[in-house]
Design brief:
- The chain has 567 residues and is an all-alpha fold.
- It has 2 domains: 259 residues, MetI-like fold (Orthogonal Bundle); 252 residues, MetI-like (MetI-like fold, Orthogonal Bundle), CATH 1.10.3720.10.
- The chain is built from 24 helices and no strands.
- The chain starts with a helix and ends in a 13-residue tail after the last helix.
């Protein structure tokens, strides 16, 4: 009877908390998306499906769609090559310094895409400071090779390779070593073992990673904007940006249709990945406790050298070029001991009001989003774990939607949802609308580590506290919060890392006075202030690497799965 009373008390407490927590989460996660659907199809505004058909059949729309599919598709293939190569070597072999290698591979994904594009533009082209310093710059007037479809695809592939790596590595670690040993006993060797056992078993994870990469590349704004707009090569995100920047709210019905088109293509990509998963799924029964591990023998130093050389090429080289550009007095001047200066750093960080304001806005928005989501995620994860129901499972799926959809889709949805509120209130052009978009987009980033931590807690501790008279708030504060705090802290840092340099969402939501760091970098480069843009970008890269290092140092104390690049 005592146990029943305790469980009843916990259930009633959870039932009282549930509507107050789940309803706002559902509204934030689903409300803007539903408003987007209503606008795109003209519900309540006198429009018809003819409006959507007219937008979808325009030559500019079809061209942008074709460009998006080409760059996202080619970028996904490049990500598969890079991510799969690293995953197979890191997960299955005995190479050394795996943690350092994975940490370096993750950095390009955490760096804002507009900074990735800016850094790589400093590596190539006739105005490259690094090439001028080395005497290797092509003649003035030569085209910038990255201002092309292949330039966009290559950088998208580098930017998102870590997604394929993380997904595939998780699947490879499930392959038991017993299968390979059995194959070797039967006479299989080398490439045959990999082709007939390892590769087929890893295809589901590879397909899942490829689908996630395609969706992410499809909605990427920073790289196509920095490289495509100068070459007049439009993708769907840049077309939406240009239409909204040029015409304002008058084109909201049109851009709603374009945003819905991106979302539809993204959903089709996810469904294709899941279909492949079903068709290629393999059931592993009786896994051994020892995962598959292969010895490289004498080839290990060569493989390690190749991997680190690749890291130097895709990470160190562009960052050095970015740093070199930030240390010159004017763009195009070679970097020497005589020309090196910190004037751009001082100007952009200390003297320019817009950059100081952008730093303040980005830090405020990222910090506020991290703190609010931490406060929401702990009780939400507790309800999902302790009070499972059809409603909580539905909410668990819905919170993935804003993060899975391309950022430009979420931005348009938030504009439509918050541009005209009751009593003549509008949030468009304020920091509040950006914060609401961040809360919607990054909720799942915070929630998943906290869910993993609370799922490992024994409910008996809470039942004992309830039997002693502790109410729900006290149990959450004294039992759940301390034990889930490390995972919540890791999630908060990941949210902060992602939000502080975000561009895709804020590029469509900012106005004068609400600029974010990503927006300022894009605007500086667009206006020709490349040296100042490089200095600001280099400072952000330093901040990102510092925060990632803090998470890395704390990884040993965090629950498994809290840090995405940890095993």
């Amino acid at each position: 009877m005592t146990t029943i009373a305790r469980n009843t008390h916990i259930s009633r407490s959870g039932d009282r908390l549930m509507p107050w927590l789940l309803l706002p989460v559902v509204l934030i996660a689903l409300g803007p998306v539903l408003r987007l659907l209503a606008e795109a199809f003209g519900f309540g505004s006198g429009l018809t499906l003819d409006h959507a058909a007219a937008v979808l059949t325009r030559p500019s729309t079809l061209t942008a769609l074709q460009h998006s599919l080409i760059t996202a598709g080619a970028g996904t293939l490049i990500s598969i090559v890079i991510g799969a190569s690293f995953a197979f070597v890191v997960a299955l072999t005995d190479i050394r310094a795996k943690s350092a290698l994975v940490f370096c591979l993750m950095i390009p994904m955490m760096i804002p895409p507009q900074i990735t594009a800016l850094a790589w533009m400093q590596v190539t082209g006739p105005s490259s400071v690094l090439l001028k310093t080395l005497g290797l710059a092509p003649p003035l007037g030569s085209p910038q090779p990255l201002h092309s479809a292949w330039g966009i695809a290559v950088l998208l592939g580098i930017q998102h390779a870590a997604i394929v790596f993380l997904t595939l590595r998780a699947g490879l670690r499930m392959i038991p070593g017993d299968l390979v040993e059995a194959a070797r006993i039967s006479g299989a060797r080398g490439a045959r073992v990999w082709a007939q056992i390892v590769l087929p078993l890893s295809l589901p994870s590879l397909a899942a990673g490829a689908a996630m990469t395609f969706v992410t590349a499809l909605g990427n704004f920073g790289i196509p904007a920095m490289l495509g707009i100068p070459a007049r090569y439009s993708t769907l995100p840049t077309l939406i940006y240009q239409r909204l920047a040029g015409m304002g709210q008058a084109v909201l019905p049109e851009v709603a249709v374009l945003a819905l088109l991106i979302g539809t293509v993204a959903v089709l990509g996810v469904l294709a990945g899941r279909l492949m998963l079903r068709r290629r799924a393999y059931g592993l029964v009786g896994l051994s406790s020892q995962p598959l591990s292969l010895s490289l023998g004498g080839a290990r130093p060569v493989v390690e050298a190749l991997l680190w050389a690749f890291i130097a090429l895709v990470l160190v080289l562009p960052l050095l070029a970015l740093l070199a550009t930030s240390l010159i007095p004017a763009y195009g001047v070679p970097l020497t001991l005589e020309t090196a200066t910190l004037k751009a750093w001082a100007e952009v960080l200390l003297n320019q009001p817009v950059t100081r304001r952008a730093y303040a806005n980005s830090l405020l928005l990222a910090g506020s989003a991290a703190l609010i989501l931490m406060a929401v995620a702990i009780p939400l994860a507790w309800i999902m774990s302790r009070r499972p129901s059809r409603l909580t499972r539905t909410v668990d799926v819905l919170v993935d939607l804003p993060y899975a959809l391309p950022g430009v889709v979420l931005a348009i949805a938030c504009i439509l949802a918050f541009v005209r509120l009751p009593f003549g209130i509008t949030l468009y052009g304020t920091l509040t609308i950006i914060l609401l978009a961040y809360l919607s987009r990054f909720l799942v980033v915070m929630l998943r580590p906290v869910q993993a931590a609370i799922g490992q807690l024994d409910p008996a501790m809470e039942e004992a506290a309830a039997s002693a008279g502790a109410h729900l708030g006290r149990r959450l504060r004294t039992i759940v919060l301390p034990l889930a705090a490390p995972a919540a802290g890791a999630g908060a840092i990941l949210v902060f890392l992602t939000a502080v340099n975000e561009l895709t969402v804020s590029a469509l939501l900012w106005a004068g006075g609400t600029e974010t760091l990503g927006v300022v970098i894009f605007n500086l480069e667009d206006s020709g202030d490349t040296v100042m843009a490089s200095a600001l970008a280099a400072s952000i890269v330093g901040l990102v690497i510092l925060l990632m290092g803090i998470v890395q140092l704390a990884a040993a104390r965090l629950p498994k799965g809290a840090v995405p690049w940890q095993g």
